[in-house]
Amino acid sequence: xxHAPTIDDYTPDKVxxxxxxxxxxxxKCSLGAIAAVAxxxxxxxxxxxxxxxxxxxxxxMPGNAGGLHMTTFExxxxxxxxxxxxxxxxxxxxRLSDRYGRRHNITLLAIVFLFGAIxxxxxPNIWFLYLARxxxxxxVGGASATVPxxxxxxxxxxxxxxxxATDQMMIVFGQFMAFSMNAVIARWQGGxxxxxxxxxxxxxxxxxxxxxxxxxxxxxxxxxxxADVTSAGNGLTWRYMLILCSLPAIALWVGIRMMPESSRxxxxxxxxxxxxxxxxxxxxxxxxxxxGELNEMLEVQRAxxxxxxxxxxxxxxxxxxxxxxxxxxxxxxxDQLTGINTAMYYTPKILNAAGVPMEDAITLNVVSGxxxxxxxxxxxxxxxxxxxxxxxxxxELGITISLAALxxxxxxxxxxxxxxxxxxxxxxxxxxxxxxxxxxxxxFIKQSGTVTWVLVSEIYPAAVxxxxxxxxVGTLWLANALVSVIFPPLxxxxxxxxxxxIFAAINFLSFLFYWKVVPETKFHSLEELELKFQKDxx
Length: 538
What we know:
mainly alpha; Growth Hormone, Chain: A; three-stranded antiparallel sheet; two-stranded antiparallel ribbon; 5 strands
């Protein structure tokens, strides 16, 4: 009776014979085309996290003006629930891609992206929007766990670093694209504007807007009777911003179906003929040794098949592994407590608080997005050239200084000129530009100094890598959710000065963590690191 093939059945000679007789599984695909299609998932990741920055000001408007009459508390959950969905998507997405395949998983995620984007755009109320943001977040988290793996497994050794770096660049480009489209739509529709049927008055009886006037929402939003005197407005603008997310999702679904599955996933599941067919679609057989590459995959599979896969309980029982797990968790938390997503999600809100009209604030958000993209490019050079810890320390110290400066600007040039309703009168004209400049410095330092993903991929030994990395990534997304939820109430309660003073203090603690606790990984192989950590942390 024949038996199912095992990994030992695929000797190097047998593999070479199979390579010689197995054709490519479809038309040739360039690595550039594969990267362009797959990283649409990363672009969606960036777009869906960035687009909300321009949409939120319109969501605050009354329902009869096209808005959702959102509160500050609800605003925080619009951002936070996407991150909670992303934490679940990262955890389950990785597992699903292991079971069903990377390309298969990205195809399903494209559908989730599409339905999530449409759901957000047509949401009739805040509760429906919450649900749609969770669904969209699941796709974002799934993409963050699947797309880099698909690229790294598809690329030859010589191009792997470049393709994975492309993935990270596309996330930032997606955010920049979202800010740009927000600005275009805001200029087309105008900033948040309402038409009044009666006088809008504040709690003191002061008239903020007269009947029959079409006024900027920020002028009358503190009126106690605003819902009763608003007859119309351009609040539907936020729906136009969000529906655009559906277009890259459709392109991703169409494009990824034409791409080959990861040959390494096929090899890991002993689907060797399919692995060969997939490899032949993306390799130049005159330059690349397909049989040699496949034999390397199988050698890794043989080695890993003999290694014990640890459970979470086992990780927690082993002192050195437990310490590495804690380091990864803190790195994930510290990455989000930099406050970077207060810039990604809320820069228009920050600039508006500094006295910039909302329409202009949405437009100026493009500047910080562009600086973020430049910073991510510089970060590739820094990580390649300098020690990981040193780059991380540069990031945290630079962020601490820039956020402390931002707090000081709010305290000196903005807060003294705020009235009880949060309106600015008499502040220096340069104050908003100073805020924008510091925000740009902040996002540049953050994006150029990001080493979190590099470190968490290097510190864990083979036996715990999958489980520990999943926990670290999930924790990162939960920390992102926390920042999203607490930032709007913090800005409302303690103002920009107090909010950014808190974030500056947190980042100084993160600087100390990098200095005193985070291990260096740049100068050792993964095998050397495993032995070193066992010795140092046991």
